[in-house]
Amino acid sequence: MNLTPKAQAIEREFQNARAKANYPAFPEFARRYVKHNKDGIVLANTALLELTVGEAEINARKAQHWTLAASLDDSPESIAISPLIKQDTIQEAVEKLESVLTRGTDEHQEYAAIVLARAALATDAPDRLQRVAHYLQNIQLPPAKIPVGYNFALIICGLTIKGMTLEAEGRISEAIVSYDNVSLLVQSNPNERSDELNSWTEHALYRTSMLKLRQGDQLAAIRSFRAYHNQALLWPGSFRLARRATIYRHFSAALSNSFKTLGQNNAGSNAVAGAGADEQSQFYPAALSLEIAQIHAYWEDSLYSVNSFPKADEKNWRVLGMIEQIVEDRKLLGPGNDADKRVLVETIYRASQKTFQSPRILRFLFFALVELGQFDEAELALKSYLDMVEINFKVKSDDAQDVLTNEQRVRLDIESEYDITTVMVAGSRLYGKELAKPEEALSCAQRALDNIHQYLQHNDVKDLLFDVYKFQGIAYGLQASGAHEPEKRPELYAKAVECFEKAIQVYPQSFDGHYHMAYQLAEMREVTKAILAVKQSLSLESSHIPSWHLLALLLSAQKEFDRALSICAVGLKESEWDLPQTDGLTASQLDGEEYLALRITQAALHDKIHGAESALEPQEALFALYTKVFAPEPASIGDSLYDIQNIRRRDQSDIELGSSSTIVGRPRAGSILSVRSRSGASDIGHGLAAHNGSNLEIPKPNYASSITSIGSSGSKKNKKLIPPAAAASNVGSATLGKSLLVPPTTVLRPTTKSVQRVARANKVLASLWLLSSSTFRRLDRMEEALKAIEEAERIDASNPDVWYQLGLLYAAQTDSETAQASYAKALALAPYHAASLARLGQSYLQAGSVEMAEGVLDTTTKSLGWNSAEAWFYLGKVFEASGRLARAKECLWYALDLEQSRPIREFADSLPRYLA
């Protein structure tokens, strides 16, 4: 059939209008087309039937207030469909088309039959499936020759209608074949674009994905999800977002299940059963992790586009379900780097803007902030969460909530008592370990224990109960060690021991319970019992470095220095931290800190046994180890998996990372003993300041060339050495936002965790210099000793031990006045610094101020210096000088007992109270 140019032009415009479902234009195009092409009556009536069906569907949706948002609740077993239309609303158009069907070309008749089948399936007629089969019976789908333009969209429509009919008849496998043919055709013809093509393609890909899940073929479902997602990237941004959100929800779950299966079955092989050779790479853990992260981002964007802020008494449970899935997937994939952790926090903050006072969101936020290391914000989230669940508990209507399923709890946004208790337990750890607030830590632990006894007696909560008793014990121990009232200390220590005993009863095979018991007994100077407890810990976990370290310190407290040194060697050998990693894994920075702490104790024992001269070389090696330990962790650098290109985050502007805090401080004036300026200052640590710990320079073997020049030469013994100006490190501080659930500002501040790490790094480096200073002082190399103190002051001027060591240096030079000023500086920084108070009391005693000495020493021994042998010794001397010999004898005997049980290094300075 040859058409005139005018008819061809009208047909092209007509087909374009059909491709866009531009229904108002159909009647005029049909009239003009028939006018210029008498044989076009079939095509014209076909389009008019499309018009009639399309408008009837629109009216039916409006009448029932139906939208595609109904698809948000779709599952493989239940897929929402558009409301059916009345047969009589389209009957006239159907009959008109059927009456002229034989007057068209074979091609027009086939495409008309597809439209008739589509119309039949859209109606509520009892025989609609039979009608569809009748219309499609003589049509080859897919055809041998693939058409183009709108006719291609009609072929896709026919395959989709055929699949939906087979699906309705229960012939699922055959329906999937028809839907898969749609996917193959669309992928093979990427240049075909039209609104109607998008519509029918989406129908087919959506339904086949769900049906494959229904059949339990997860691998096939993932293939279809991927096909849907790849096509969705080509669709308009606002096209069927509700269905996209549903697809991404199920897609995310399917990928997570695949990741779990891979982890369970992966005994050295990443192969996935049923996946082709070219597809295997998509199922490696790294590839799956990235894909899951991407799908999370698309899911969030599509869901938020169709979700609004909930009304009163409503719960935005779909958002809650999404965030729960994302959080669970993050647990599955591992913590990731700092960028990933920060993205998770931002994701939860965005979710908080789509919900209203959700305790579930606050719980997720709390744990995410703790993982990120933003402990100050985590504390706010913890307080808000506990306040909210307490309010919800007061208005709790009945006990029916106790038997709700997790899905029901998500829909109602009701927290289970188990979840509440886990937050309380984690809160106790946060308060005690990260925030140094033992009273709050004890309160959280007690509330958790009450919850367990009241609500969780019939649950398996051994892990929770163990942690509760353990954190209770640590909190009591912290309170005792910081107590200023001597009458309270024994009771607090007894409670701590009792809690650890209960923890061990709950889990006798858990090494950390025995470690904490040993630590507590060691702090109480019950050395023999502590040794038995720590040996029990090592029998259960022989690679635990803090346990070996504690054992070495306990042996040193018994003055068995050779055995303690041997134990250090054994413990270091058990650790693999300082060994080359050949398995692709890296040890954590925390393990490195524990390893370094044990090496420092080893160096101190080496000094004690072999003398100060032989201790210099091991001390030098500690500086090299320090630079390795406090280098940036591999997990803290790199890009986030969630930094997906072409994903525009809603309500989130670009974030620029602020500069990190420096490890060492900047020189400043104002040191109270400084009388001259620094010249030629060392750059030790400046590389670390610039790179957050990555490029520390190493001190030279003589510890002198990298330290500030002292000035003119003179007698080392008698010269008064004054340190130059220096400053404490600038670790940075930032104010909190006014509202907890408002996302952080776009300029990122260092996390509390990173600030604390900087502080620990400064303290360790300063302690290494002070260790060197002590060695030099005992070797009578006073100038070098002062240089080491200067370096320690430049790194951590707020450390009272720096000024205490300076006082010892001046005291060794018989300059008691300056020594006393140094102790005063230490006390200005730490008013209860026991060693400085003891030396200050000694100074008063030597100066004849017995009353002043007694006041200082009596206060010291009653408060934080209760275990200071020096303080008790000098107090005994005070009583002796004032004629109170009985009291003097008691103090001197107690000082002797303390000295005989004193370890080579203080337990609190060497060992972790909380294990990771």
UniProtKB/TrEMBL annotation:
Pfam families the UniProt entry points to: TPR_8 (PF13181)
Entry keyword Glycosyltransferase: no
Protein name according to UniProt: Superkiller protein 3
PANTHER family: TETRATRICOPEPTIDE REPEAT DOMAIN 7, ISOFORM A (PTHR23083:SF464), TETRATRICOPEPTIDE REPEAT PROTEIN, TPR (PTHR23083)
TPR repeat ranges per the UniProt record: 800-833, 869-902
InterPro entries per record: Endocytosis_PI4K-reg_protein, TPR-like_helical_dom_sf, TPR_rpt
Species assigned in the record: Podila verticillata NRRL 6337
Role according to the record: Involved in endocytosis.
Keyword GTP-binding: no
Protein family (similarity comment): Belongs to the YPP1 family.
Keywords: TPR repeat
